[in-house]
Amino acid sequence: MDLDLAGRHALVCGASEGIGLAAARELALLGADITLLARREDALRAASGSLPRRDGQRHGFVVADAAQTEALANVAVELAARHPVQILINNTGGPPAG
């Protein structure tokens, strides 16, 4: 199957490491512009710089904590106003193991 996501924008939450970062890399390989979202700016900066790029892809990041829903909503609205999002990966660290 040939999936060409060129011209699409993906917002990947919980993307500084693990499953979120792996999903972001795969979407970038398929041509999507990627915005990473997580709490740690240093990790996001490194992760964003590690994403594959081709043909003018734009990757970036926004710092937000999913537990602070009002602030998260503001970040999401601002991001979508600047660069509409067609793909959402809603990944978080989840609740503590129990």
Tags for this model:
four-stranded parallel β-sheet, 98 residues, alpha/beta
General description of the model:
By secondary structure, this protein is an alpha/beta fold. Helix content is 37%, strand content 19%. It contains 3 helices and 4 strands; from the N terminus they run βαβαβαβ. The chain has helices at residues 18-29, 41-50, 69-82, and strands spanning 9-13, 33-38, 59-63, 87-89. The chain has a 4-stranded parallel β-sheet, with helices on one face. Strand 1 (9-13), helix 1 (18-29) and strand 2 (33-38) form a beta-alpha-beta unit. The longest helix is centred in the last third of the chain and has 14 residues, at 69-82. The chain starts with 8 loop residues before the first strand and ends in a 9-residue tail after the last strand. The mean pLDDT is 93.
Q: Report helical residue fraction.
A: 25-40%
**Looking across the biggest beta sheet, what order are the strands in?**
3-2-1-4
* Number of distinct beta strands: 4
**How much beta, percentage-wise?**
15-25%
Low-confidence stretches: none
First-residue to last-residue Cα separation: 39 Å
**Total helical elements:** 3
The run of helices and strands is EHEHEHE
Helix/strand-derived category reads alpha/beta
Profile the largest sheet. Answer: 4 strands, parallel
The 3D shape can be described as globular
Short structural summary:
Helices cover 37% and strands 19% of the residues. The chain is of the alpha/beta class and 98 residues long. The chain is globular, with a radius of gyration of 13 Å.
